[in-house]
Amino acid sequence: MFTGLKLTNFKAWQDTGIVNLKPVTMLLGTNSSGKSTLIQSLLLLKQTVRSPDRSIHLNLGGDEVNDLFNFGEFDDVLHQGFVGDRQFSLSFTFLSPESSRIDNGTFFCSYGQNSAGGVAIQEWRVGTNEQQFKSIRREKGAYSLTVDKEIQPRAKGRHICPERSVSLSAEAIVALGQDGAVLEDLSLAIRRELENIIYLGPLRRKPERDYVWNKSNPGEMGSDGHRAIDVLLASALIKGDDQNRIIEGVSKWLVRMKVADKLEVKQVGRSTRYELVVHRDGVEANLRDVGIGISQVLPVLTIAYFAPSGSTIILEEPEIHLHPLAQSVLAELFVEVSKERNVQFIVESHSEHLFRRMQTLIARQSIKPQDAAMYFVEREGSVARLRSLELDDFGRVQNWPESFFGDALGETREQARLMFTRQQESQA
């Protein structure tokens, strides 16, 4: 689980400060304020560790099939009002699962440009509570490697350059002697933490009328949720102890949202094609024939049960096309599934209903304030600012940003005033 994040000179952010991440973290804010950039920073590192090129420093994207985002060039990422050198940095902290040899870890990397205009790591630091490793770029692309507070480097040269931002070469590991095994375990833990990110974006595919199932369980759902149906088909059709677990979990939440009574997979005649059928009030309908809200929330519900234990699920606008009650129930989904399945949710949203229900869940003690983090992102000119919303034990916000969700009481007062004025005019 990610426990902290910090960006400097990265796109809209001059300096985020330390962003504490919890089992359920919500990001609120105005359009184009910088919320998505916080999410994209982790996805940038994820697509870097997945790159087939071991020597790459940072994969800014461009491969439409394999990359999550295309960040453009170095100057597109560098904050326009950068402070100091032409560098930006990404750092995070994390807790590893009990099965890992590493309990917790830290990652820091700053990036500049090389002579060819490409991205080059300037300083790389990773560590645990017990040990710290540092690789710094020197002249002509050579790096020096130190451990803890040692003054003399353990090794120097081009071969000390970090690979894919998260690990060092075999030669560098050998140069560390007995400490090399610690760094290998730490690099593996960092890589796994990034690989365990599952991302669902705000734009999701519309459903088809029926689907061909290839008799396998997909390894991922896609950032637009296009493999969610494959996951549901596999859940219903693959025999075993896990059969129907995901589709039953999805059905449960559709019921709680009051948008369906059940979701069912049905074979189309005797063909190899299958359809998703939505049951509601005694009526069966193909997924294609029901409101768009159900098809758009299906990937959100599916990913909550599809993600392996220990994953970090990043969601952008999960509430899209949902009515207010269903938006509220999403907060309950995040809280309950996070506890039941040991997954972390980082959610970017504009939904007042989702946020208000999170406040209620804190007041009910369904989730402790220390297990939930709420942030409001706003712009001051070209610079993004982050406000940590302070919630008490009753879910009340102590430092609420003015007018973000509108002025509900003010609207009510204005309506009452107009009603009173009209009544007086009609009696005159």
UniProtKB/TrEMBL annotation:
| Coiled-coil features, chain-numbered ranges | none
**Pfam family example for this protein?**
AAA_21
Residues annotated as domain DUF3696: 367-415
One GO term in the molecular function aspect is: ATP binding
User: Which residue intervals define the domain ATPase AAA-type core in the entry?
Assistant: 260-354
- Name of the protein in question: DUF3696 domain-containing protein
Record organism: Aeromonas cavernicola
